[in-house]
Amino acid sequence: MLGVGIFLCLVMFTAAGYLTYRNSKLIAERQKEDFVPLPSTEYTVFIGKQKPDPELDGMLPLWVMSWESSDSITLAGLCRVTDGDQGDLRLEEAERVLSSHINKALQSGTYLSCEICNPSKLHEYEHSMAVRLSTAAGPNRSV
Length: 143
Hints:
The protein contains four helices and four strands; from the N terminus they run αβαββαβα. 48% of the residues lie in helices and 22% in strands. It folds into two domains: 1-35; 43-137, no CATH class. The model has no long low-confidence stretch (mean pLDDT 84). Strands 1-3-2-4 form a four-stranded antiparallel β-sheet. A hairpin with a 4-residue loop joins strand 2 and strand 3.
């Protein structure tokens, strides 16, 4: 009788150990699937007369603003570096730089417009940043 009790305890402990092992494997797989690493320095800010061409320049424009300069219209915007090189800014740093450009253009009265570029290619956090920048430019000013 004692031998049967010991055998049943061993079977129960073995089954509990196996179920615990399978549960921990399932949890680890789910956490691995849910993890999306944020890019570190994958962005750059450009300033120029025209938007960068993704195929030629290796930069995908995500958000662009324009203002009047002394001789023409100047553009500044956020680009994701796509040619395999690392950019020079993190997304938060790029947002601060562009916010500074917005403030300068608004204060000087030279601000013209802004736009979100390539919306289908933006990640959720990039789109949120573009909306924040457009809102900072003014509710009726963005194009």
